[in-house]
Amino acid sequence: MRLLKISDCCKAADRNKLMLRGPNRLAYPLKREWGSGDIKMRISLPSELRDLILPGHQSSLIKRRRSEVILSRVQTVAIVFAILTPLWIPIDLIIFESELAAGLTLLRVLSATAFAALALSLRRAEGIQRARIALFLLLAVPTVFFLVTLPLLGRFEVADQPAQFVATGYAFLPFVMVAGLSMFPITALEGVLLSFPLWMVSLIVPFFGYQLLPFASHLGALWLLALLAAVASLSSMSQLHFLAATMTQSSHDGLTRAYNRQVGQELLDIQFTQSARSKTPLAILYIDLDDFKSINDRFGHEAGDKTLRDVAEALRAVLRRGDILIRWGGEEFLVVLAQAGADGAAIAVERLRHGGLALRPDGKLQTASIGIAERIVDDCDDWARLVAIADRRMYEAKQGGKDRAVGPKEPAPAGLSR
């Protein structure tokens, strides 16, 4: 096994200065944010707005929750539409002449079938890309129905008042679809991309030969549709913000602001699955604070809590965006290093070596025993085995004298020695 003494060269060092001078400053930049891993409740407003405006910046955990909500609601709406769409057929048969009613009936049956097929094809565990596709298909079905229905209505003379009233309902279908976007936790850009085709369809309707409203009124309807899309997007952003804020509060340990173990296990599962699928490395550090119980015994639990907070802050300071900090147990932390092999894990440990973890109440440096495991080197087929290997190596570090790290034998992690 390869061992590294953690506290050498740092007992009298200024932690912040040493971190800024570290040779891997770009690889593990400092952060001034609270939270851990790849989900953070940012202090700066522009970052919050960016996460609400642009897709792809949310963490894997929020993406998973968001996809579950979107897929669940798409499935619910699709089922409701599959039931309600054919229920309007008797009204069409009563109001319109037989040939027009037959065409509308066929379109309604096809639409209901498409909605039912969409609802049956969805599974809650699918990812955010699948959720976006499902939402697009949910809007595509009524859009195609709208594009085909209006030219069909234009081919027939709709003279009596009841028929004109029902036909007007078909013309305002895009308004219903745009308003429906407010049900889903999506970003502003996603809202624009989903509502823009509906706006364009409404714009080109007069060129299909059927126009219920005068041209000036049609322009007013387009302006109203744009305003409705903006309001729906704001509502969707509000849902997304509430989802992220709620998850941040419930997923973090109240003392250290690291992820709690329950959420950490879910994040580990996500990261391990992504790593295995993309065949990229994934390393973890199992960190157990040395002689932590003596702090509680000698100085009280408040002093122990402060030490835990300081340790968590020191660990966050050496993490990259995308790395994950989990409070695994009382004085145990797990660090998940995404797309980092044994060498990347050694870099993180080396930065801890330079910066130190925290000062104990007696002024001595708080040390830790660290176990390092890596998915590819250790040939792990699930995250639980990866954690078990890192846990075992942490105990080997304890038995070897504490204040050290034990990593895999091959390849040699940079900065570690036999």
Would you kindly provide a written description of the structure presented here, covering whatever features stand out?
With 418 residues, this protein is of the alpha+beta class. The chain has two domains: 2-37 and 259-407, Reverse transcriptase/Diguanylate cyclase domain (Alpha-Beta Plaits, 2-Layer Sandwich); 60-249. 59% of the residues lie in helices and 10% in strands. The protein contains 15 helices and ten strands. The protein has helices at 15-21, 45-53, 60-87, 89-95, 98-121, 128-154, 161-171, 173-180, 188-204, 215-251, 261-278, 293-299, 301-317, 342-355, 383-399, and strands at residues 2-5, 35-36, 39-40, 282-289, 324-327, 332-338, 358-359, 365-366, 368-374, 404-407. Strands 1-10-9-4-6-5 form a six-stranded mixed sheet, sandwiched between helices. Strand 9, helix 15 (383-399) and strand 10 form a beta-alpha-beta unit. Helix 9 (188-204) packs antiparallel against helix 10. It is elongated. Residues 6-45 and 410-418 have low confidence and may be disordered.
Class per helix and strand makeup? alpha+beta
Average pLDDT figure: 81
**Whole-number radius of gyration?**
29 Å
Total beta-strand segments: 10
Q: Which series of helices and strands comes N to C?
A: EHEEHHHHHHHHHHEHHEEHEEEHE
Number of helices: 15
What gross morphology would you assign? elongated
What is the total domain count? 2
Fraction in helix: 55-70%
Strand order of the largest sheet: 1-10-9-4-6-5
Tell me the distance between the termini. 7 Å
Give a quick set of tags describing it.
418 residues; alpha+beta; Alpha-Beta Plaits; six-stranded mixed sheet; two-stranded antiparallel ribbon; 15 helices; 59% helix; elongated; disordered C terminus
